């Protein structure tokens, strides 16, 4: 099957699933107070010291004597092609980034093989993709997939997760990048705006992670938004925003929800977090978790992965839930389901995995015991009420990068990791193999939307077709030398299936563990 033939083969189904917790857009007056200001002042939500922008990722060990406090926005740099249409920390780190990317490619064989086919068949020829995603060596491999004579400016959706050499190599390779580690709130929105308004081009596809880019183009550049051929969104928050626009009748382009694809849900959420939660906790605290009492807030895919990993280390794990089905699953998996207030005084670690806001509030933080730890594996920096801790009576003490002691007047200390942002993205790395699956899913979704005949997708939000989900999984089976059993004609007829799939209906619920 040629990549260019994906569009006729796959057909997505519009979804109108009710969203219980809608992410509401704030009033325009309030909303644009978050956007670039003339003063360039950092807002509280992203206010970070220089040391907090350090990372324990592989890129953290790389230093450059030319690295200084000068903002990249104030620097004049040229890439190898003589272009200055980018903004990164130091373009001289490009060679370091190339080596990082080569390591990542070794565990992303499926995406690399798909990239080879794409470079010959060019299914995205003529596409002008603007993206807002995390930028690491692994996600950089995804953009080398797109670099087949298309234009792809990219900004970053994380102020902590950034491997600078990879950022610089992307720009060196022909992808215009506006991103650097330690961006302020003002820098963040400035980078997004520059991606959209790059001179001499206009995007026709959006690749988003969190919905910020989509929302920015929708509110600031409506004429550009109306000409977009498709949006691919991979986050819970971004998908909520798209459903909200669709429900209000304001979504004027088709969008693909890859967040709820099976491969993304299981690997990026369940299997990835099962490993990265321990990676982030160990790198930042060196704590032994055997016998520790841990409460995991939320038992969705992320919560399931975190709970299983901590239980395997011998931790005593409690779970909080609002959903009776997820709560029952936690009970059947051997966890005690409690209310946070019932255990907050004696637990050693609190981990949020809900996608909600203020899951851990100031009153609960006040009642945590001395030396306890709190971190977030869920959504952005909203789950822990960190803003309530920035008060005169509390003292913040930096212990090491991404680790702060918050000290109460009586001397009690609570360890806060990554200032309440995503632990695995801020304090460790995400497994390369997982990102290969996510990137492959995104790439196929872009190909599908870009090549779909007129009329196939209307102005709505669509789930990734089941056939495409299965194709992503099949590409990665070779890594394990796995061999699937093929149905006989008689068996396929008995089950009422096509021998080549899809093998499960859209309503099929894959087991979580």
Automatic annotation (TrEMBL):
It comes from the Eukaryota. Its cofactor is NAD(+). SUPFAM superfamilies: Formate/glycerate dehydrogenase catalytic domain-like, NAD(P)-binding Rossmann-fold domains. Residues 30-82 are annotated as: Disordered. Residues 45-64 have a biased composition (Low complexity). Residues 269-430 form the S-adenosyl-L-homocysteine hydrolase NAD binding domain. One of its GO terms (cellular component) is cytosol. One of its GO terms (biological process) is one-carbon metabolic process. The keyword DNA repair does not apply. Keywords: NAD, One-carbon metabolism. Substrate binds at residues 136, 209, 234, 264, 268. SMART domains: AdoHcyase, AdoHcyase_NAD. NAD(+) binds at residues 300-305, 321, 424. Binds 1 NAD(+) per subunit. The keyword Manganese does not apply. Belongs to the adenosylhomocysteinase family. This is Adenosylhomocysteinase like 1. It comes from Nothobranchius furzeri (Turquoise killifish).
């Amino acid at each position: 099957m040629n990549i260019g033939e994906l569009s006729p083969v796959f057909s997505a189904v519009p979804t109108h699933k009710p969203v219980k917790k809608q992410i509401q857009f704030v009033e325009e007056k309030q909303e644009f107070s978050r956007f670039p200001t003339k003063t360039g002042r950092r807002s509280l939500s992203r206010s970070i010291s220089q040391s907090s922008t350090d990372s324990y990722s592989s890129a953290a060990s790389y230093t450059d004597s030319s690295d200084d406090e000068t903002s990249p926005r104030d620097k004049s740099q040229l890439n190898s092609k003589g272009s200055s249409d980018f903004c990164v920390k130091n373009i001289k780190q490009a060679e370091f980034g190339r080596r990082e990317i080569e390591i990542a490619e070794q565990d992303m064989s499926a995406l690399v093989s798909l990239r080879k086919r794409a470079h010959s068949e060019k299914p995205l020829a003529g596409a002008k993709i603007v993206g807002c995603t995390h930028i690491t060596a692994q996600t950089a491999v995804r953009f080398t997939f797109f670099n087949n004579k298309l234009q792809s400016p990219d900004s970053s959706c994380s102020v902590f997760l950034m491997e600078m050499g990879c950022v610089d190599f992307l720009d060196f390779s022909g992808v215009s990048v506006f991103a650097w580690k330690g961006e302020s709130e003002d820098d963040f929105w400035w980078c997004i705006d520059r991606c959209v308004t790059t001179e001499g081009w206009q995007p026709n596809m959006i690749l988003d992670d969190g919905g910020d880019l989509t929302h920015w183009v929708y509110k600031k550049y409506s004429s550009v938004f109306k000409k977009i051929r498709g949006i691919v969104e991979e986050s819970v928050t971004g998908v909520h925003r798209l459903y909200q626009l669709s429900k209000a009748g304001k979504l004027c382009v088709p969008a693909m929800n890859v967040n709820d694809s099976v491969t993304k849900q299981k690997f990026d959420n369940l299997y990835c977090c099962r490993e990265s939660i321990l990676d982030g906790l160990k790198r930042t605290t060196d704590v032994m978790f055997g016998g520790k009492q841990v409460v995991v807030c939320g038992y969705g895919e992320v919560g399931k992965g975190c709970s299983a990993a901590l239980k395997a280390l011998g931790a005593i794990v409690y779970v909080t839930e609002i959903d009776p089905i997820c709560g029952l699953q936690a009970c059947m998996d051997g966890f005690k389901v409690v209310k946070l207030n019932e255990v907050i005084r004696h637990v050693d670690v609190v981990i949020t995995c809900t996608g909600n806001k203020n899951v851990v509030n100031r009153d609960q933080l006040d009642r945590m015991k001395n030396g306890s730890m709190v971190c977030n594996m869920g959504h952005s920096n909203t789950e822990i009420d960190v803003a309530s801790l920035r008060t005169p009576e509390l003292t913040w003490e930096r212990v090491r990068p991404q680790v702060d002691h918050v000290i109460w007047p009586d001397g009690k200390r609570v360890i806060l990791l990554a200032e309440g942002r995503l632990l695995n993205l801020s304090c460790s790395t995400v497994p390369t193999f997982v990102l290969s699956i996510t990137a492959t899913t995104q790439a196929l979704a872009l190909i599908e939307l870009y090549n779909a005949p007129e009329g196939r997708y209307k102005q709505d939000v669509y789930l990734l077709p089941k056939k495409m989900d299965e194709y992503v999984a099949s590409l990665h089976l070779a890594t394990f030398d796995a061999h699937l059993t093929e149905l006989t004609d008689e068996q396929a007829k008995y089950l009422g299936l096509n021998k080549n799939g899809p093998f499960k209906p859209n309503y099929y619920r894959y087991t979580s563990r």
